[in-house]
């Protein structure tokens, strides 16, 4: 069911199995993140948010940031919720965090993921380069995109 109010909250270790389930569904033929990878990101203290509807995790996003730059590590939304603004909500939350520390932010996105590319362009990102065969094992290419620092 895709109705109800979507809320954001810090991603918890208890959410990791659902994150992995979403990864497996969204990225077949690739190398989806393992549960260990998610736990490691949370243990490192990186910034991760979950999107929830009626207590169910429907998406997640995360980034790592330093005093000099930030990197979006992931944004994923369960298929039934795609195209309903959940990805945009998650991205805006990440960008608000980045803007608090006033650093540029970078990410990689599949060159054939047109909805995501459009969302990033609409939020001030520019294509900076092309990474050939970035995604494995499929060998799909990725754009590197960046957005300059914005102060709040």
From TrEMBL:
<comment type="similarity">
    <text>Belongs to the acetyltransferase family. RimI subfamily.</text>
</comment>
<dbReference type="InterPro" id="IPR000182">
    <property type="entry name" value="GNAT_dom"/>
</dbReference>
<dbReference type="Pfam" id="PF00583">
    <property type="entry name" value="Acetyltransf_1"/>
</dbReference>
<dbReference type="GO" id="GO:0008999">
    <property type="term" value="F:protein-N-terminal-alanine acetyltransferase activity"/>
</dbReference>
<protein>
    <recommendedName>
        <fullName>[Ribosomal protein bS18]-alanine N-acetyltransferase</fullName>
        <ecNumber>2.3.1.266</ecNumber>
    </recommendedName>
</protein>
<dbReference type="InterPro" id="IPR050276">
    <property type="entry name" value="MshD_Acetyltransferase"/>
</dbReference>
<dbReference type="InterPro" id="IPR006464">
    <property type="entry name" value="AcTrfase_RimI/Ard1"/>
</dbReference>
<comment type="function">
    <text>Acetylates the N-terminal alanine of ribosomal protein bS18.</text>
</comment>
<keyword id="KW-0808">Transferase</keyword>
<dbReference type="InterPro" id="IPR016181">
    <property type="entry name" value="Acyl_CoA_acyltransferase"/>
</dbReference>
<feature type="domain" description="N-acetyltransferase">
    <location>
        <begin position="6"/>
        <end position="150"/>
    </location>
</feature>
<keyword id="KW-0963">Cytoplasm</keyword>
<dbReference type="GO" id="GO:0005737">
    <property type="term" value="C:cytoplasm"/>
</dbReference>
């Amino acid at each position: 069911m895709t109705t109800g109010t979507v809320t954001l909250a810090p991603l918890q270790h208890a959410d990791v199995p659902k994150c992995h389930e979403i990864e497996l569904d969204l990225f077949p033929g690739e190398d989806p993140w393992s549960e260990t990878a998610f736990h490691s990101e949370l243990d490192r203290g990186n910034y991760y948010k979950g999107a929830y509807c009626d207590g169910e995790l429907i998406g997640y996003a995360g980034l790592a940031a330093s005093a000099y730059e930030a990197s979006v590590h992931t944004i994923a939304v369960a298929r039934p919720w795609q195209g309903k603004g959940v990805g945009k909500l998650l991205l805006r939350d990440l960008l608000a965090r980045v803007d608090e520390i006033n650093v540029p932010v970078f990410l990689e996105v599949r060159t054939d993921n047109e909805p995501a590319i459009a969302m990033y362009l609409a939020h001030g990102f520019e294509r900076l380069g092309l990474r050939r065969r970035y995604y494995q094992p499929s060998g799909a290419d990725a754009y590197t995109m960046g957005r300059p620092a914005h102060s709040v």
